[in-house]
Write a structure and sequence with these properties.
The protein has a five-stranded antiparallel beta sheet with strand order 1-6-7-8-5. The chain has a four-stranded antiparallel beta sheet with strand order 2-3-4-9, with helices on one face. It has one domain. The longest helix has 9 residues. It is mostly beta strands. Helices cover 11% and strands 36% of the residues.
Length: 141
């Protein structure tokens, strides 16, 4: 089967309309901190923390233009929060230059104002007190 995106249930939702997402990167660790979904009993900040990061980007398209994303017709159209790219062409293109890339996964996180893509060895979900800015920095340590 060629490259395709599947829904990646991280077990947590975040505020879909809050433009307060904060990304902090240090060495091979990337954190994305977001306000908790209004319906979540736990209102602490949601932090997605990737380790063994090989590559990442954040930017266009936003939620209104997501149909222009190259992965949209490959399953991203069925993803509401986070997706995992199976047989990722990006991972394959990075693997010859980075031995770590060959064992990595390719995640796509859809936000209101941008799309975040990360190729990394692992992702974990954390909760932290404070603002997304504070939580993103704390999660790096």
């Amino acid at each position: 089967m060629p490259e395709h995106v599947i829904d990646h249930d991280l077990g947590v939702l975040w505020e879909p309309n809050a433009p307060e997402a904060v990304i902090v990167s240090q060495d091979a660790v990337l954190t994305l901190a977001l306000r908790a979904h209004p319906d979540d009993i736990d209102q602490r900040t949601v932090v997605l923390r990737w380790s063994g990061v090989v590559w990442w980007c954040a930017g266009a398209p936003n939620d209104e233009a997501v149909a222009s994303h190259r992965l949209y017709q490959k399953g991203l159209d069925r993803v509401l929060w986070s997706g995992r790219v199976e047989r990722s062409e990006l991972v394959e293109s990075l693997a010859p230059g980075s031995p770590r890339a060959s064992g990595s996964t390719h995640d796509v996180v859809l936000l209101k104002e941008e799309t975040v893509e990360v190729v990394a060895c692992a992702v974990e979900v954390l909760r932290a007190d404070g603002t997304p800015r504070d939580a993103a920095r704390i999660a790096l340590s």
